Structures are given as structure tokens and as C-alpha cells.
Amino acid sequence: MGWYTRCSSYSARMVRRAEAIVCHPGSSLVAVMIQAIAHRVNYVWVIDNECGVVGIVTFANMLEVFRENLEPMI
């Protein structure tokens, strides 16, 4: 019932059943969206280099960024 000590740029696993999907502040939005879709999750934890949580990005947040950037093109 704890976290593995390893920290990768894509995921950190819980010892039990669940898998926490994570990204870093500099991660590509498209890469994070693909990761969320592939793992069928609605949010991704944002972690720093020491694996500390610095925030959460929801799928709705990601879609909002895309919508904001597409509106000027229309």
C-alpha cells in the first residue's frame, strides 16, 4: 500500500490495483491527452522531478485549451 520509488515521465504505479497516470509540467498536451485516452482516465496527475504532486489536469481542462486555440482559426 505505497508508491513504488521509481518515477518515470509517463507513469508511477501504486502497489495495489490502481495505476496513477502522471505527467510533468513540460509535457506535451497532445501526449498527455493520448495517455489519458489510452488509460481511459479523466485526469492526469502533474508531478515534479522528485515525484511530488504539483497539480491535476482534467480531460475537460485539456479540451478547453484546444477549444481556446481553435477559436481564433474559425
Characterise this structure.
This is CBS domain-containing protein cbsx5. It comes from Castilleja foliolosa. Residues 14-73 form the CBS domain. InterPro entries: CBS_dom, CBS_dom_sf. Keywords: CBS domain. This protein is of the alpha+beta class and 74 residues long. It is 31% helix and 26% strand. Strands 1-2-3-4 form a 4-stranded mixed beta sheet.
Give the structure's gist in a few sentences.
With 74 residues, the chain is an alpha+beta fold. The protein has helices spanning 29-39, 59-70, and strands spanning 11-13, 19-23, 43-47, 53-58. Keywords: CBS domain.
Secondary-structure element series: EEHEEH
Average of per-residue pLDDT values:
82
> In angstroms, what is the radius of gyration?
14 Å
Q: Write down the overall geometry.
A: globular
Q: How many helices?
A: 2
Number of strands: 4
Largest sheet: 4 strands, mixed
Going by helix content, strand content and strand pairing, the class is alpha+beta
Going across the biggest sheet, name each strand in turn. Answer: 1-2-3-4
Low-confidence stretches: 1-5, 12-16
Strand content: 25-35%
User: Can you give the helix content as a percent range?
Assistant: 25-40%
- Report how far the terminal alpha carbons are from each other: 49 Å
